[in-house]
Amino acid sequence: MHIDISLNHTPIAIPPLLLPGREIGACVEFQGIVRELEQGSALAGLHYEAYEQMAERELRRILDELAVESPCQSVTFIHRLGWVPVGEASMFIRVLASHRREALRLCGEVIDRLKQDVPIWKVAPHS
């Protein structure tokens, strides 16, 4: 599986869709958007921090592990660091696979595992 991970401090630019082969039958994309309310408090945005080298290493490990049950051809993972205003994306994931079931499963599971195991965290300042 091809894995492309990017942690950056600029707004997320969604890369063009390039299919690595003619057997891709599913493209699942997810964007995590910063909401205005966090635990009932109004926000202007969120600040994301990460231990970048460890975060990338852990994401690769998780994706390799998930690919055993949900074989996919390609994953693009982008997470924004620093200040992200309300209404902008903090995360983008694209999964390419032969079948939708594997692509949907891998996308959902990587998000769940990200929140548990990857050293990327958010600081929610009150507006």
Biggest sheet layout = 4 strands, mixed
Using the CA coordinates, give the radius of gyration.
15 Å
Query: Overall mean pLDDT score?
Result: 94
* Major beta sheet, strand line-up: 1-6-8-2
Query: How many H/I helical runs?
Result: 2
Please provide the ordered H/E string of secondary-structure elements.
EEEEEHEEEHE
Question: What is the number of beta strands?
Answer: 9
Globally, the shape reads globular
Structural class designation: alpha+beta
Tell me the layout of helices and strands.
Elements: E1 2-8, E2 26-33, E3 37-38, E4 41-42, E5 45-50, H1 52-69, E6 74-80, E7 82-85, E8 89-97, H2 100-117, E9 120-123
Parallel strand pairs: 1-6
Antiparallel strand pairs: 2-8, 3-4, 5-7, 5-9, 6-8
Helix pairs in contact: 1-2
